[in-house]
Amino acid sequence: MSHPQAPYTGRFAPSPTGPLHAGSLVAALASFLDARAAGGQWLLRIDDIDPPRAMPGATQRILSTLAAHHLHFDGSLQLQSNHYPAYANALDQLAASGLVFRCRCTRATLGPNSTCIASCAAEEVPATLPTSLRIKVPEHTTLEFDDLIKGPQRLALGEHTPNFILRRRDGLYAYQLACAVDDGDPSITHVIRGSDLLDSTFRQLYIQRCLGLEHPRYGHLPVLTDSDGNKLSKQTGAAALDDNTPYRNLQSALATLGQPPIDADGDVDALLTLATEHWSRTAIPK
Ligand code: GLU
């Protein structure tokens, strides 16, 4: 169940694993323009629940880059690290519904899509062993949603991903759980993000459904790749955006998003105002 009646609220949710790059700007700008074109709010959430992958100073750098590009967020900055009680409650609720099992598998023994193919779910692995916590997805579970950019989407999740991690063996909450809970908050109505997260969307929709949460509308964007066809990624060292050239960076993000050319004579605010007026979801390459 989604909640189209609520006033539009979107969000941008970078992980502080490095500075923003050209691909991050596409996601930031599209989520910003989609919100502004709808007269809505645009929130910023820092997904900082994976300290081993965090880069010192990255959050501050992300904030400076967004400010340099005049992408000003509404309300106060949100940090996932402030939401641990909500994730713990969600996990308890899922466990109480019999949907969670302990898994002792290591990366080397996992099956396709990093699922547990051993008998952990049937075995009741003792809590004294180092284990991750996984959610069960019944075999015939198929999920569908109407993507705001790519149109109807469908996945036989039970076959594709019969189980996936909610809490890692190192005790950290998994991105899927944290993101499902945060985006399942009734205040969030729209999530516009890269197509690399399309599979994650099905997992998050599943978690939201199991928790009885409403879900936002989702739209998935084209993903920028390097010359080898790999997704630009903070972790693999994609070049940081140059905060001194916001106008040029935004123009190039608009071109990636298939938006009509705009000449604002180097004025970043004017560019964003015109881009909001001319924003077209249907022009975004699928
Ligand atoms: N924080 C994650 C990332 O940077 C998720 C983003 C999202 O869900 O929009 O890839």
Write the layout of secondary structure elements.
Layout (H helix, E strand, L loop, with lengths): L8 E4 L9 H16 L3 E6 L11 H11 L9 E2 L4 H13 L3 E4 L16 H4 L8 E5 L6 E5 L3 E5 L1 H4 L2 E5 L7 H9 L6 E5 L3 H13 L6 E5 L24 H11 L11 H10 L9
Parallel strand pairs: 1-2, 2-3, 9-10
Antiparallel strand pairs: 4-5, 5-8, 6-7
Helix pairs in contact: 1-8, 1-9, 6-7
The chain binds glutamic acid (GLU).
Structural commentary:
This protein has 286 residues and is α/β, with parallel strands linked by helices. 32% of the residues lie in helices and 16% in strands. It has a three-stranded parallel sheet with strand order 1-2-3. Strands 4-5-8 form a three-stranded antiparallel sheet. It has a two-stranded antiparallel ribbon with strand order 6-7. The longest helix has 16 residues, at 22-37. The radius of gyration is 20 Å and the shape is globular. The protein binds glutamic acid. Glutamic acid (GLU) binds at residues 13-15, 47, 179, 193, 197.
